[in-house]
Write a structure and sequence with these properties.
This protein has 187 residues and is mainly α. The protein has six helices and three strands, in the order ααββαβααα. Helix 4 packs antiparallel against helix 5.
């Protein structure tokens, strides 16, 4: 009976000590002071136009492509609209430096920011992604929006997921193929 009392006392002491340490540790942390700089600017949503509902995705895609092509340095643009989202792939000069490509993407996004349809668009200048958007756009024009999107999405995921040699299972050789089957026929 005495042993149980000692164990209960030790357990209670351990719990109380843990709680006291935790409470004391929480009480010493102070929150960050409020910024005193009066130049802090708050962003307002009044700067951007209100998002319009997309009734005709093909018309909106053509409109956003036209806006993107209007930016100097953009050779071509392809847009795909799914629901309320748009993905725009822009083609730029292959010799252009990365910083210039970033500037062009920003310029296209700035043009979209002022447009009620383009306010939530995603702009990419990546060659592979722009090509994928172009292929999805062709599939949409050919009446295959869902299957075309699914095919391109699987291709993109296939490029991202690494191939691990340990996980490769070689196919079994067919029993009727090769020289061994020819030798059996000669006998």
């Amino acid at each position: 009976m005495k042993l149980y009392r000692i164990i209960a006392y030790a357990t209670s002491l351990l719990v109380v000590t843990t709680l006291a340490t935790g409470i004391a540790g929480c009480g010493t942390k102070q929150s960050a002071p409020a910024p005193t700089d009066n130049r802090v600017r708050t962003l307002t949503t009044n700067d951007a136009p209100a998002k319009r509902k997309i009734d005709n995705p093909k018309k909106v895609a053509a409109h956003l492509e036209s806006l993107a092509r209007g930016v100097e340095g953009v050779k071509d643009a392809n847009c795909v609209v799914f629901g309320k989202y748009a993905i725009v792939g822009i083609d730029v000069d292959k010799k252009m430096e990365r910083s210039q490509v970033g500037t062009l993407k920003y310029a296209v996004a700035e043009a979209f920011r002022k447009d009620p349809y383009g306010i939530d668009a995603i702009v990419t200048a990546d060659l592979d992604l722009a090509q994928r958007v172009r292929e999805i756009r062709v599939d949409v024009k050919n009446g295959r929006p869902i299957s075309g999107f699914a095919e391109e999405l699987s291709d993109m995921i296939g490029r991202v997921i690494p191939q691990i040699p340990r996980n490769i299972i070689p196919p079994k050789a067919p029993e009727n193929m090769g020289t061994s089957s020819l030798n059996k026929l000669k006998k």
